[in-house]
Amino acid sequence: MLRLKKIMAVGVVALAGAALAACGNNSSNSSSGTKKTLNWMDKTEIEGMDLSKVTDGTSFTQLNNTMEGLYRLGKNSKVEPGLATKTTTSKDGKTWTFTLRNNDKWSNGDPVTAQDFVYSWRRTVDPSTGSQYSYLFSGVKNADAIVAGKKRPNTLGVKAEGKDKLVVTLDKRILYFKLLMCFPLFFPQNQKAVEQYGKSYGTSSKTTVYNGPFVQKGWTGSNLSWKLVKNKNYWDKKNVKLDTINFSVQKTPSTDYNLYQSGKLDAALLGPQASKQLKNQKGYTLRKTSSTIYLGMNMKKKPFTNENFRKAISLAIDRKELANSVGGAAEPADTLSPENMIEVNGKDYTDLVRGEATKQFNTFNKSKAQAFWKKAQQELGKKSFNFAILTYDDDASKKAGEYLQSTIESTLKGVNVRVQSIPKKTALNHAGSGNYDVFLMGWTADFSDPISFLDLNTSKNSQNLEKYSDPTYDKLVADSKVTPSETKRWDDLVKAEQRIISTQGVTPLYHPEEAWMVRPSVKNVIYNGAGAPYNFKGAYVAN
Predict the structure, then answer these.
(1) Is pLDDT of 350 > 90?
(2) What is the pLDDT of residue 538?
(3) Is 5:12 a contact under the CB 8 Å cutoff?
(4) To the nearest 5 percent, what fractions of the chain are helix, strand and coil?
(5) Measured between alpha carbons, how far is 521 from 242 in angstroms, rounded to an integer?
(6) What DSSP element (H or E) covers 444?
(7) pLDDT band for position 33 (cuts 50, 70, 90)
């Protein structure tokens, strides 16, 4: 859900929500007794289909099912074979050699080759492409220098040896390298198609080519409905059960639940009241996400340059009340990284982070909030400030914005808040250009490691929309990437997270868990909280 996974803003990575739904009476039956059509809803529209450029969860889910890389992410984030049939690694962990399948084709008929990976990776790290995710290539030989404009893209540590052998050279051992390869950013691209469509590549179904289980049809770049159709050129098409997945964007839970009740959807996202009333009903389903919703304050603008003002905002928010207001099973957040993402020596990573910083600055305390507000007034030389909170226009985002407006204004006298709820693509454009005051945003981990969160707000990261800059924080994150000691790596990451909390570089609000009603006939949809969350390759709907 810009911000994962992948940017989320209450509705990505925002809450990158989705529901499973069979097409009801419109489904066709197969000889195996399954329906061949699935209807799926998402809360937010597609940002794009150019894997070098997209940043949101809806788009990454589309890419995860229409494209394929070296590996796929299976159940419980298990790495499974994709296009790689064999992988060898050097003793020092710095050279990876992948042997590729020779029977996969692009939807335009071209064979998928090792050169397609070379082209894709070079294109993504090339500064002229404008990828906001190029930093994830850090560790691949010369990637950092290329992204910084100091070396040419063709010096990247990736090369093709013939059509079916890909060799990757790293600057250092990357412990989570296989997990990274499951993320769509590292998938291949068809050079002929990218060059044929130019600036239009990935802006519609017709200007994109595919090599995954499905091909996309009917997305024009802005519409709210489209479909995925089984890819006849996919190497493993015999294990793709569905012929069609119909998608529609449903931004209001009451609407999609009505469709569910009338039999037009087989799943529905539940609003706050419905999630409480239906908790014990058959089909009630919780979707845990490796996600955090938080406030990003534009530190290029006053009063957000002032640390005491940022602390006042954080302390004015009752995170439990906020989580209840958006519904589902959202958990209040006192850490940036979500719980249950990774364990360190038998303990949840977030338990290591919790301490004085989280207690002092991410816990509702009206009197402390007002004390920090008074300090900020003195330092800024003003008694009042007006600002806008930018949100998406889905129901959960609007509810969160309304709550934040109410609690901030009632706690901090002289602070006036306006909520600006607009379509996702427009909001992302505003945030990316720095045209905002405060952005209600979110992130879903690209892979199950806290570095996926902590990398975001290093000073030179393209995803650092807040323009947070702290040398101590930068050094801790950088040190965690180069130390050979696992113990020191975790110590650096914990200290970095405590640092960004104590300075309120971001203001964590809640970790989303979404409540759904899902018909039991929907089978084998793989959901993972991190990365591109949904895998439909083996999904089916039972009769």
Answers:
(1) yes
(2) 94
(3) yes
(4) 35, 25, 40
(5) 14
(6) strand 438-444
(7) low
Q: Which of 296, 327, 330 is nearest to 313 (CA)?
A: 296
Q: Where are the beta strands (DSSP E) in 143-198?
A: 158-160, 165-169
What residues pair up with 416 in beta bridges, in sequence order?
A: 386
- Token pair in block for residue 155: 């010096």
Cα distance between residue 412 and residue 373, in whole Å? 7
How sure is the predictor about 253, in pLDDT bands with cuts at 50, 70 and 90?
Answer: confident
Paired tokens of 88: 């060898």
Helix (H, G, I), strand (E, B) or coil at 203: coil
CA dist 135 and 409 (Å) reads: 38
CA atoms within 13 A on the CB side of 260: 25
Q: Which amino acid is at 241?
A: K
**Which strand (E) or helix (H) includes residue 71?**
strand 71-73
CB 101 within 8 A of CB 119: no
**Those residues with Cβ within 8 angstroms of residue 206's Cβ, 6 or more apart along the chain or in another chain:** none
Separation CA 194–CA 214 (nearest Å): 19
pLDDT digits (tens, 9 = 90+) for 233-246: 999 999 999 999 99
The rounded distance, in Å, linking the Cα atoms of 309 and 319 is: 18
Separation CA 541–CA 149 (nearest Å): 49
Strands (E), 83-144: 84-89, 95-100
Which residues have C-beta within 8 Å of that of residue 199, sequence separation ≥ 6? none
**Of 61, 54, 25, 55, nearest in space to 40 by CA:** 61
